[in-house]
Design a protein that fits this description.
The chain is of the alpha+beta class. It contains six helices and 15 strands.
Protein backbone atom coordinates (compact mmCIF):
# COMPACT_ATOMS: atom_id res chain seq x y z
CA UNK A 1 0.00 0.00 0.00
CA UNK A 2 1.47 3.36 -1.04
CA UNK A 3 1.84 6.10 1.54
CA UNK A 4 0.44 9.48 0.48
CA UNK A 5 3.15 12.06 -0.17
CA UNK A 6 0.97 14.98 0.89
CA UNK A 7 -1.78 15.13 3.52
CA UNK A 8 -4.45 17.82 3.89
CA UNK A 9 -4.65 18.66 7.58
CA UNK A 10 -6.77 21.48 9.02
CA UNK A 11 -6.64 23.55 5.84
CA UNK A 12 -2.98 22.97 4.95
CA UNK A 13 -1.17 20.55 2.68
CA UNK A 14 1.76 18.97 4.51
CA UNK A 15 4.30 16.25 3.72
CA UNK A 16 3.08 12.99 5.25
CA UNK A 17 5.99 12.91 7.69
CA UNK A 18 5.06 16.38 8.96
CA UNK A 19 1.30 15.82 9.21
CA UNK A 20 1.10 14.93 12.87
CA UNK A 21 -1.64 15.13 15.47
CA UNK A 22 -1.45 15.82 19.19
CA UNK A 23 -1.05 12.98 21.72
CA UNK A 24 -4.21 14.43 23.30
CA UNK A 25 -6.24 14.04 20.09
CA UNK A 26 -9.60 12.60 21.15
CA UNK A 27 -9.95 10.62 17.96
CA UNK A 28 -6.85 8.70 19.00
CA UNK A 29 -7.67 8.50 22.70
CA UNK A 30 -11.34 7.50 22.61
CA UNK A 31 -12.35 7.17 18.95
CA UNK A 32 -14.32 10.42 19.07
CA UNK A 33 -14.75 11.16 15.38
CA UNK A 34 -16.26 10.23 12.04
CA UNK A 35 -14.98 9.53 8.56
CA UNK A 36 -15.84 8.98 4.93
CA UNK A 37 -14.13 6.80 2.33
CA UNK A 38 -14.61 7.87 -1.27
CA UNK A 39 -13.52 6.37 -4.58
CA UNK A 40 -12.12 8.47 -7.40
CA UNK A 41 -12.26 7.02 -10.89
CA UNK A 42 -10.89 8.83 -13.91
CA UNK A 43 -10.54 11.94 -11.79
CA UNK A 44 -14.22 11.89 -10.80
CA UNK A 45 -15.11 11.66 -7.12
CA UNK A 46 -18.01 9.22 -6.93
CA UNK A 47 -20.95 10.33 -4.79
CA UNK A 48 -19.25 13.48 -3.50
CA UNK A 49 -22.45 15.20 -2.37
CA UNK A 50 -23.90 12.03 -0.85
CA UNK A 51 -20.70 11.39 1.12
CA UNK A 52 -20.74 14.95 2.44
CA UNK A 53 -24.40 14.56 3.45
CA UNK A 54 -23.54 11.42 5.40
CA UNK A 55 -20.59 13.16 7.05
CA UNK A 56 -22.98 15.87 8.23
CA UNK A 57 -25.38 13.25 9.63
CA UNK A 58 -22.56 11.43 11.41
CA UNK A 59 -21.21 14.66 12.87
CA UNK A 60 -24.68 15.64 14.06
CA UNK A 61 -25.09 12.26 15.77
CA UNK A 62 -21.82 12.80 17.65
CA UNK A 63 -22.40 16.49 18.35
CA UNK A 64 -19.56 17.63 16.09
CA UNK A 65 -19.52 20.55 13.68
CA UNK A 66 -19.11 19.22 10.13
CA UNK A 67 -17.00 20.95 7.51
CA UNK A 68 -19.12 22.62 4.85
CA UNK A 69 -19.48 21.08 1.41
CA UNK A 70 -17.13 23.56 -0.26
CA UNK A 71 -14.31 22.78 2.16
CA UNK A 72 -15.05 19.06 1.86
CA UNK A 73 -14.76 19.14 -1.94
CA UNK A 74 -11.79 21.53 -1.98
CA UNK A 75 -9.82 19.49 0.55
CA UNK A 76 -10.39 16.28 -1.40
CA UNK A 77 -9.30 17.87 -4.65
CA UNK A 78 -6.23 19.37 -2.99
CA UNK A 79 -5.15 15.96 -1.68
CA UNK A 80 -5.72 14.35 -5.07
CA UNK A 81 -3.81 17.04 -6.97
CA UNK A 82 -0.93 17.11 -4.50
CA UNK A 83 -0.47 13.36 -4.91
CA UNK A 84 -1.09 13.28 -8.68
CA UNK A 85 -3.98 10.82 -8.40
CA UNK A 86 -6.91 10.26 -10.76
CA UNK A 87 -7.73 6.72 -9.53
CA UNK A 88 -7.79 6.94 -5.76
CA UNK A 89 -9.17 5.99 -2.40
CA UNK A 90 -9.78 9.09 -0.28
CA UNK A 91 -10.29 9.14 3.47
CA UNK A 92 -11.85 12.22 5.09
CA UNK A 93 -11.68 12.21 8.89
CA UNK A 94 -13.16 14.64 11.41
CA UNK A 95 -12.66 14.42 15.16
CA UNK A 96 -13.39 16.55 18.20
CA UNK A 97 -9.68 17.41 18.48
CA UNK A 98 -7.68 17.66 21.67
CA UNK A 99 -9.39 16.52 24.85
CA UNK A 100 -8.73 15.21 28.34
CA UNK A 101 -7.69 11.63 29.06
CA UNK A 102 -11.29 10.58 29.71
CA UNK A 103 -14.53 10.77 27.78
CA UNK A 104 -15.15 14.49 28.34
CA UNK A 105 -14.38 16.63 25.31
CA UNK A 106 -12.07 19.59 25.13
CA UNK A 107 -13.02 22.98 23.74
CA UNK A 108 -10.80 22.82 20.65
CA UNK A 109 -11.80 23.34 17.04
CA UNK A 110 -11.44 19.70 16.10
CA UNK A 111 -9.24 17.95 13.57
CA UNK A 112 -9.98 17.70 9.84
CA UNK A 113 -7.80 15.39 7.78
CA UNK A 114 -7.87 14.17 4.17
CA UNK A 115 -5.56 11.46 2.82
CA UNK A 116 -5.54 10.00 -0.68
CA UNK A 117 -3.78 6.93 -2.05
CA UNK A 118 -4.00 4.78 -5.17
CA UNK A 119 -7.25 2.86 -5.47
CA UNK A 120 -6.92 -0.78 -4.51
CA UNK A 121 -8.28 -3.53 -6.73
CA UNK A 122 -10.39 -6.46 -5.60
CA UNK A 123 -10.58 -10.00 -6.89
CA UNK A 124 -13.49 -10.59 -9.28
CA UNK A 125 -15.51 -12.30 -6.51
CA UNK A 126 -15.42 -12.42 -2.73
CA UNK A 127 -15.69 -15.06 -0.02
CA UNK A 128 -17.56 -14.09 3.15
CA UNK A 129 -18.54 -15.62 6.46
CA UNK A 130 -20.98 -14.78 9.23
CA UNK A 131 -19.13 -13.95 12.45
CA UNK A 132 -20.56 -14.46 15.95
CA UNK A 133 -20.53 -10.84 17.10
CA UNK A 134 -23.61 -8.65 16.62
CA UNK A 135 -24.35 -5.09 15.59
CA UNK A 136 -26.41 -3.17 18.17
CA UNK A 137 -29.14 -1.59 16.08
CA UNK A 138 -30.22 0.53 19.06
CA UNK A 139 -26.74 1.73 20.02
CA UNK A 140 -25.65 5.38 19.98
CA UNK A 141 -23.38 4.68 16.98
CA UNK A 142 -25.88 2.67 14.92
CA UNK A 143 -25.71 3.96 11.37
CA UNK A 144 -22.89 6.39 12.18
CA UNK A 145 -19.65 6.26 10.18
CA UNK A 146 -17.60 6.41 13.37
CA UNK A 147 -13.84 5.94 13.64
CA UNK A 148 -14.57 3.59 16.56
CA UNK A 149 -13.89 0.63 14.30
CA UNK A 150 -12.39 -1.94 16.66
CA UNK A 151 -15.43 -4.25 16.37
CA UNK A 152 -14.97 -4.29 12.60
CA UNK A 153 -11.23 -4.90 12.94
CA UNK A 154 -11.90 -7.97 15.11
CA UNK A 155 -14.63 -9.30 12.81
CA UNK A 156 -12.53 -8.85 9.67
CA UNK A 157 -9.52 -10.53 11.29
CA UNK A 158 -11.74 -13.52 12.08
CA UNK A 159 -12.97 -13.62 8.48
CA UNK A 160 -9.38 -13.53 7.20
CA UNK A 161 -8.49 -16.35 9.61
CA UNK A 162 -11.27 -18.37 7.98
CA UNK A 163 -10.02 -17.66 4.47
CA UNK A 164 -12.56 -14.95 3.64
CA UNK A 165 -12.17 -11.36 2.54
CA UNK A 166 -15.16 -9.92 4.38
CA UNK A 167 -17.17 -10.67 7.51
CA UNK A 168 -20.94 -10.34 7.71
CA UNK A 169 -22.68 -9.51 10.98
CA UNK A 170 -26.23 -9.89 12.26
CA UNK A 171 -27.93 -7.46 14.63
CA UNK A 172 -29.22 -8.22 18.13
CA UNK A 173 -32.54 -9.42 16.63
CA UNK A 174 -30.71 -12.07 14.61
CA UNK A 175 -31.30 -10.22 11.35
CA UNK A 176 -28.75 -9.87 8.57
CA UNK A 177 -27.13 -6.45 8.93
CA UNK A 178 -23.94 -5.62 7.00
CA UNK A 179 -20.26 -6.28 6.42
CA UNK A 180 -17.36 -4.66 8.23
CA UNK A 181 -16.87 -2.19 5.39
CA UNK A 182 -19.74 -2.97 3.08
CA UNK A 183 -23.47 -3.41 2.69
CA UNK A 184 -24.93 -6.72 1.58
CA UNK A 185 -27.62 -7.67 -0.95
CA UNK A 186 -29.08 -11.16 -1.40
CA UNK A 187 -31.26 -12.82 -4.01
CA UNK A 188 -34.04 -15.05 -2.69
CA UNK A 189 -36.32 -16.89 -5.13
CA UNK A 190 -35.13 -14.52 -7.84
CA UNK A 191 -35.91 -11.33 -5.90
CA UNK A 192 -33.32 -8.86 -4.68
CA UNK A 193 -33.24 -7.75 -1.04
CA UNK A 194 -31.02 -5.67 1.23
CA UNK A 195 -31.33 -5.03 4.98
CA UNK A 196 -33.22 -1.81 5.88
CA UNK A 197 -31.46 1.01 7.70
CA UNK A 198 -33.27 0.21 10.95
CA UNK A 199 -31.32 -3.07 11.00
CA UNK A 200 -28.43 -0.94 12.28
CA UNK A 201 -26.48 -1.08 9.03
CA UNK A 202 -24.61 1.91 7.72
CA UNK A 203 -26.42 4.01 5.13
CA UNK A 204 -23.83 3.18 2.50
CA UNK A 205 -23.45 5.67 -0.32
CA UNK A 206 -22.91 2.89 -2.85
CA UNK A 207 -25.91 1.10 -1.36
CA UNK A 208 -27.96 4.25 -2.04
CA UNK A 209 -26.62 4.60 -5.59
CA UNK A 210 -27.36 0.92 -6.28
CA UNK A 211 -30.94 1.33 -5.05
CA UNK A 212 -31.30 4.37 -7.33
CA UNK A 213 -29.77 2.44 -10.24
CA UNK A 214 -32.12 -0.49 -9.69
CA UNK A 215 -35.14 1.81 -9.61
CA UNK A 216 -34.03 3.49 -12.84
CA UNK A 217 -33.47 0.12 -14.55
CA UNK A 218 -36.71 -1.43 -13.33
CA UNK A 219 -34.98 -3.97 -11.08
CA UNK A 220 -37.11 -4.56 -7.98
CA UNK A 221 -35.10 -4.36 -4.78
CA UNK A 222 -36.79 -4.58 -1.40
CA UNK A 223 -35.34 -3.27 1.85
CA UNK A 224 -36.29 -6.28 3.94
CA UNK A 225 -35.63 -7.41 7.51
CA UNK A 226 -34.16 -10.86 6.91
CA UNK A 227 -33.08 -13.54 9.37
CA UNK A 228 -29.36 -14.14 9.10
CA UNK A 229 -30.06 -17.73 8.09
CA UNK A 230 -30.98 -16.48 4.59
CA UNK A 231 -27.25 -16.74 3.98
CA UNK A 232 -27.70 -20.52 3.96
CA UNK A 233 -30.23 -20.46 1.13
CA UNK A 234 -29.86 -17.32 -1.01
CA UNK A 235 -29.14 -17.96 -4.70
CA UNK A 236 -26.92 -14.94 -5.19
CA UNK A 237 -25.37 -12.25 -3.02
CA UNK A 238 -23.13 -9.26 -3.45
CA UNK A 239 -21.41 -6.57 -1.43
CA UNK A 240 -21.45 -2.86 -2.11
CA UNK A 241 -19.01 -0.19 -1.00
CA UNK A 242 -17.22 2.81 -2.46
CA UNK A 243 -14.18 0.78 -3.48
CA UNK A 244 -15.94 -2.54 -4.21
CA UNK A 245 -18.82 -1.11 -6.30
CA UNK A 246 -21.11 -4.16 -6.86
CA UNK A 247 -18.91 -7.08 -5.77
CA UNK A 248 -20.27 -10.62 -6.32
CA UNK A 249 -20.04 -13.11 -3.47
CA UNK A 250 -18.84 -16.55 -4.60
CA UNK A 251 -18.86 -18.27 -1.23
CA UNK A 252 -20.72 -17.85 2.09
CA UNK A 253 -19.46 -19.93 5.01
CA UNK A 254 -18.07 -22.43 2.52
CA UNK A 255 -21.25 -22.65 0.43
CA UNK A 256 -20.71 -21.87 -3.26
CA UNK A 257 -22.95 -19.38 -5.05
CA UNK A 258 -23.30 -18.32 -8.68
CA UNK A 259 -20.98 -15.34 -8.94
CA UNK A 260 -21.95 -13.27 -10.67
CA UNK A 261 -25.44 -14.62 -11.13
CA UNK A 262 -28.00 -13.10 -13.51
CA UNK A 263 -29.47 -10.64 -11.00
CA UNK A 264 -26.01 -9.47 -9.91
CA UNK A 265 -24.99 -8.98 -13.53
CA UNK A 266 -28.09 -6.89 -14.16
CA UNK A 267 -27.36 -4.76 -11.10
CA UNK A 268 -23.73 -4.28 -12.15
CA UNK A 269 -24.88 -3.07 -15.55
CA UNK A 270 -27.52 -0.79 -14.04
CA UNK A 271 -25.00 0.68 -11.58
CA UNK A 272 -22.47 1.37 -14.34
CA UNK A 273 -25.17 3.06 -16.42
CA UNK A 274 -26.31 5.11 -13.42
CA UNK A 275 -22.80 6.41 -12.77
CA UNK A 276 -22.40 7.24 -16.43
CA UNK A 277 -25.68 9.15 -16.61
Amino acid sequence: MSTPVQIWLNGRLLPAEAARISPFEHGLLVGDGVFETLAVRGGRVIGLHEHWQRLVRSCKALGLSAMDETEFATAIQAALSANGLIEARVRVTQTSGDGPLGSDRGAGQGTRLVAAMPLNTWAATEKVCLVPWTRNEKGALAGVKSISYAENVIALAEAKRRGCGEALVANTRGELCEGTGSNVFVVLEGRLHTPPLDSGCLAGVTRLLVLQACAAAGIACAETALPAEVLTRCEEAFLTSSTRDVHPIAEIDGRTLAAPGPVTLAVQAAYAAHLGA
